[in-house]
Amino acid sequence: MIVRKPLVIGTLIVLIAVFALTRPQFHSQTVHKQPAAEFLNPLILKEQQEKARVFKMRKAALQTAIDAYFKKAIEDRLIIGAGVSIVTGDSIILKSGYGKRNVYKSDTVNDQTVFRLGSLSKGFTGILAGIEVKEGNLSWEDKLIDAVPAFGLKDKANAQTITLSNVLSHTTGVPYHCYTNLVEDGLKLQTIADRFKVINTYTKPGLIYSYQNAMFALSGEMMHAATGQTLQALLQNKLFTPLHMNTASTDYEAMITTNNYAFPHKSTWKGWRRLPVNKKYFNAVAAGGVNASADDMGKWMRFLLGHNETILDAEGLAAVFKPEIEIPDAHKYYQRWKGHLRSSYAYGWRVHEFVDAETGNASTMIHHGGSVSDFRNEIAIFPGEDLGICVLFNSQTSLASSVIPELHELVKNVMNTPVEGLELGKLASAY
């Protein structure tokens, strides 16, 4: 049995050893134009140079800490490989790969290595719906049955009232994970939509949270009906291309024809075993069919933090991230994170509220996990800190349940741990 040792403590040792700064803020890499007189002012110029120096040092400190964290995870055989991106403000301060993308070869993961995202795809779908609503092509109250006539339920009245809002927030009233098996069997969405006609609902739409894949995927059919474009085309034209997510895709062929993609792996008593990339969920792109790299996810998070309003402005993002239904306490891994108060579901995103036990300060995290065919991923946005963290794994791993709070803690330590004046040798030997 593999015994997992704490990863954060070891990486903090490295972090402190390289980190010798006194104030907690990462600064944007963006250079803003200054009036000529102000730009030539020696004091202002010196201040800008100091900010750039501090930014560079903090970035290097974070890189060293994150490198140590994932090196230990690989040594402890918790993971075979990972793609990691961290964003603060409008700057991607880290995009790195760790470990192997194929255990049988020397191929290593880098920031361009493509992973399958699984349910992180739902966040793309929610945002795309927000864009279509903003452009007037859709309404949150549009009826599913109007866009997908093949759809039905045993309770015809409930079938008539399910909206786009219900579909994206898992509040349709149908049983938990209804027809996920049909998605995994590769059936077409229109065929699955027709199969719902024999399903009894738990409640009327809008009353309970019941997580779905098949039902959620029908949101893509609604967007297709509203725009005349497939969901794949909409994602490419309205998100991937304008965000320069150059390795993102939505199909099996696009992934396996790249020269840099991760294979899924399974841990066995003999070691890691490589598995083939399969085609599951590419028939349900809205729910789990997006592929992307750490580089892509950094650009994605920068946009989600509000730093590209030409695609969707703050009002549009807020509509997507607005909690629609509270998630019952079911001892999910994210409900065990320190300070967790409650979780809700928005449109393709979970929204977690936290309270610091010491200070009483409240904070919000916008988050989703993803798991598909032995890929396991996590993404989290911290609006109050203008921070985003994403980790992509090419295996199932227990680390997925804690990687977000642990990396969040590392980032905060880079920003908040002043060690000016301490000697490197003495500090390192203290541990």
UniProtKB/TrEMBL annotation:
Domain Beta-lactamase-related: 66-399
Protein name per Swiss-Prot or TrEMBL: Beta-lactamase class C
Signal sequence segment: none
InterPro entries: AmpC-like, Beta-lactam-related, Beta-lactam/transpept-like
Domain of life: Bacteria
Transmembrane segments: none
